[in-house]
Amino acid sequence: MTTVLSTTGTIFFIIAIGYLAVDRKVFSRDALQVLGKYVVNLALPALIFRALSGRGVSEISNAGYLGGYLLGSLTVLMVGYLVSRTFWKTSPISSTFDATGMACANSGFVGYPLLVMVLPSIAPIALALNMVVENLVIIPLVLVLAERASAPTLSRRSLAKLIFHRVSTNPIVLAMVAGIAVAVFNIPIPPFASNGIDLIAQSSVAVSLFVIGGTVTGISFKSVGKRVVGVVFGKLVFLPIAVWVGFSIMALVGAGVDDRDLQKAAIIMAATPAMSIYPVLAQRYGQEEQAATAMLLMTAMSFFTISGLLYLL
């Protein structure tokens, strides 16, 4: 247990530094946005490119992992939406972001740094596979639900163009495509470029955790209600269980994941707080207060839930 607490303690120590740096005005929120853009537009794409380009085609197309994680995420997204609409009596747009908070894990900013410490050999490929599910399926689906709820008269063609533009210009998606192309066609990368990409990728761990800490600065627990608690429970408890069930279903149909560490990595990823852009995305649709409060509570509670999960695994 001491080893587990040491691991999670390191992660949350860096998060706490980010929190204090913004709280004490060492860094402004504008500076934090710059760091966040650096991670999203450069560091994470570099990391994903290296993870995919340096792997075999069989590892990239791991149907068991992709299917299991997708089943778990889609189940939580659908159940979260129905619970919000049926039991919490919220609007379609509010239900969309309640479900998003439950189903979208912070694989890049929290999950990967955590895996680097506990499963370093598996961390890059687990991140890359998670990003495939999240960026190519879950986030586009969330955008479809959000746009439909906020603009019900929007035509299917206009909606498809909007989603395609956002996905096709996403640096993480572009890095996926480039990494897969390099792996499939065995394209050589010059040493200077390879070394430069590695250095940028390595910077993602500390910077991403720092940004998470700064992001929750100034958010208050005052607006915590049953919806916030429900979203936090769905994210930190229901999603990891759903992903585990998803892997079990894939195993039953003959497409299981043989590598036990890779299964553990997926469950650990699922147990992280919601994706870092969750409050930002919610802000576009007037749902920022609920999302920001849920993000704060998730971040605080995840120290205990992740520590417990690591101890069990």
Radius of gyration of CA atoms, rounded to a whole number: 19 Å
How much of the sequence lies in strands comes to under 5%
Query: What class, by secondary structure content?
Result: mainly alpha
Shape: globular
What is the strand tally? 0
Helix percent band: over 70%
Give average pLDDT, whole number.
84
Topology of helices and strands:
Layout: H1 2-23, H2 29-53, H3 57-60, H4 63-86, H5 92-103, H6 107-118, H7 123-150, H8 156-168, H9 171-185, H10 191-202, H11 204-215, H12 226-252, H13 260-270, H14 278-283, H15 288-312
Helix pairs in contact: 1-11, 1-15, 2-7, 2-9, 2-10, 2-11, 4-5, 4-7, 4-12, 5-7, 5-12, 6-7, 6-11, 6-13, 7-8, 7-13, 12-13, 12-15
Walk me through the structure.
The mean pLDDT is 84. With 313 residues, this protein is mainly α. The protein has helices spanning 2-23, 29-53, 57-60, 63-86, 92-103, 107-118, 123-150, 156-168, 171-185, 191-202, 204-215, 226-252, 260-270, 278-283, 288-312. Helix 6 packs across helix 11 (204-215) and helix 7 (123-150) packs parallel to helix 13 (260-270). The protein is built from 15 helices and no strands.
Task: Fill in the keyword field for this structure.
313 residues; globular; 79% helix; 0% strand; mainly alpha
Q: Could you write a compact summary of the structure shown?
A:
The protein is mostly helical and 313 residues long.
